[in-house]
Design brief:
Blueprint (H helix, E strand, L loop, with lengths): L2 H8 L3 H10 L4 H12 L9 H10 L6 H4 L4 H4 L9
Helix pairs in contact: 1-3
Length: 85
């Protein structure tokens, strides 16, 4: 679970949530639904890799790809393997 994303997303105002959704090429409703599922420990890897990257960039690395996909980030972004977790 990425409680970092849940906390980060809930801290955004409505305009910022719209901007994030646009950056991720999705809707605020989708991001809200995924945050709710994460908050209930329903899943760990909800987002596609491209969405994770967009969230990391938009959040200025407050929420990282590693945070969003803790179980398989090393298989997706092999260039991050050598970086400290």
């Amino acid at each position: 679970m990425s409680s970092k994303f849940v906390t980060y997303f809930r801290g955004l105002n409505s305009d910022q949530k719209k901007e994030l959704a646009e950056s991720c090429k999705t809707s605020v409703e989708y991001l809200s639904k995924q945050a709710a599922l994460m908050n209930k420990d329903k899943t760990t890897s909800l987002f596609k890799p491209a969405t994770c990257t967009a969230i990391e960039i938009f959040s200025n690395k407050e929420v990282t790809r590693k945070d969003l996909r803790p179980d398989d980030w090393m298989d997706i972004w092999i260039e991050l393997r050598d970086q400290i977790a």
